[in-house]
UniProtKB/TrEMBL annotation:
Pfam families associated with the record: PTPLA
Biological function: Catalyzes the third of the four reactions of the long-chain fatty acids elongation cycle. This endoplasmic reticulum-bound enzymatic process, allows the addition of two carbons to the chain of long- and very long-chain fatty acids/VLCFAs per cycle. This enzyme catalyzes the dehydration of the 3-hydroxyacyl-CoA intermediate into trans-2,3-enoyl-CoA, within each cycle of fatty acid elongation. Thereby, it participates to the production of VLCFAs of different chain lengths that are involved in multiple biological processes as precursors of membrane lipids and lipid mediators.
GO CC annotations on file: endoplasmic reticulum membrane
Protein name: Very-long-chain (3R)-3-hydroxyacyl-CoA dehydratase
Family that this chain belongs to: Belongs to the very long-chain fatty acids dehydratase HACD family.
InterPro entries on file: Tyr_Pase-like_PTPLA (IPR007482)
MF term (GO), any: very-long-chain (3R)-3-hydroxyacyl-CoA dehydratase activity
Membrane topology designation: Multi-pass membrane protein
Keywords in alphabetical order: Endoplasmic reticulum, Fatty acid biosynthesis, Fatty acid metabolism, Lipid biosynthesis, Lipid metabolism, Lyase, Membrane, Transmembrane, Transmembrane helix
Amino acid sequence: MVFSCIYRYRKNTYLFIYYLIQFCGHSWIFTNMTVRFFSFGEDSMVDTFYAIGLVMRVCQSISLLELLHICVGIEPNHLLPRFLQLTERIIILFVVITSQEEVQEKYVVCVLFIFWNLLDMVRYTYSMLSVIGISYAVLTWLSQTLWMPIYPLCVLAEAFAIYQSLPYFESSGTYSTELPFDLAIYFPYVLKMYLMMLFIGKWLLFLHSSCAFWFVLLSTLAERSANTGEAEKEPRHDGLDLASKAPRSYNAFCRTSQDQIYHCFTV
């Protein structure tokens, strides 16, 4: 029992520090982009990567630890969707954007970073507070609904970034390799194939996530309605309010349903 408590304490402490570092990094990126946009206008979008690219690469590199968290069992998420999301971001950030200076000056890089950091700030804030047992209804709502409009926009921004990078990969020959027996790897063709798989995979992932979200949400709402009905059948004692006799409070319900939905399929 003692060793279990010590393990849980150390695990929660480590996860809290990890989520806090990620939250601070993505918050700094988003704040920097916002301040620079209001200070310099559209000109700030051109050199977005030069201003925050290093911190963005560090945050995305550190996020690879989440695969280890899932494998060892300290983070109850699904491995495959998280692996696909991290792989996609690594390809876009390090292969497509970092390797081509011309792409770094495109407006789509700024837009893509805004979408990524919005999702990550909400996700890491929720995860950080959940580790210490804190839950807010507004944060619950944001963490479960914000990805619905932003996720398709992220896919479009990523696809547009790949599309704009194709001419530069064709002219520079980056990552294109000659092989024996008159064979070659032409990287623009690889990107075009990845672009097609991106839309198909993201569409299936979005459908699966949406179905899982609504299924768990309706299940928890039905459970709450049934529990509330049972509580109303119980007689009052000494002037106690029915809300105090309910099996779970609103915050507890939000925390339970949020955990079920969030861990059902992480986007």
